[in-house]
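no rush on this but wanted to send it before i forget. theres a chain ive been looking at and ive put its sequence and its fold in token form underneath. i want to understand how the tokens follow from the sequence so walk me through it. thanks a lot i owe you, the record is right below:
>
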Amino acid sequence: MDAAAQLVASLSPLIEDTRVLQALAATPREVFVPPELRRRAYENVALPIDCGQTISQPLVVARMLELLELRGTERVLDIGTGSGYHAALLAQLASRVVSIERHRALSRHAAAALAGLEITNVELLVGDGSEGAREHGPFDAINVAAATTAGGVEILATQLALGGRLVAPIAADPGRPDRQRLMYVRRDAEGISRRRCEAVRFVPLVSGAP
């Protein structure tokens, strides 16, 4: 069993969505990590990348994808492109992905990685992810790969289509940004519903012009 298959096998007791597991198995994580860390690409840990950012722990990535309940027809907004790994997985689970990153260098590296894998249904933007990408919406799903606030989630949730889902790590206490939980948000005709999920740790979402 190769390293990718071993990783997926270790996650399968915790992730029920088989499409998510299949996407993880089909996506070479080593493409998205720095060369000096590629020997660790299939460890179930977050790893550092350029610009002080990280490629997230595979279990957390899989859990966020599972919460989004993607079936293959959706238009998705991915906030915090980072390495491009999350976008590569979303590309296999949805119809179209718009991914926004504040750091231009990271967006360039992600573009090269995605092109190398011949992924063509991801549009990369450089900009302030805290504002979303309203001109490209509405979105059936929004994935936020950096810690934000409840107020930040409210802004992004206005860009959801009816029935749309959003998943984001939330730091509830500004004084303890390291204490985060995933928040699941859904927009229906009755309004916005929210559910807090498991504890996680992400780098903060940085606002402002690139």
Remarks:
- The first strand starts at residue 47 and ends at 48.
- Strands lie at 47-48, 54-55, 75-79, 96-101, 122-126, 139-144, 160-171, 180-188, 191-200.
- The chain has six helices and nine strands.
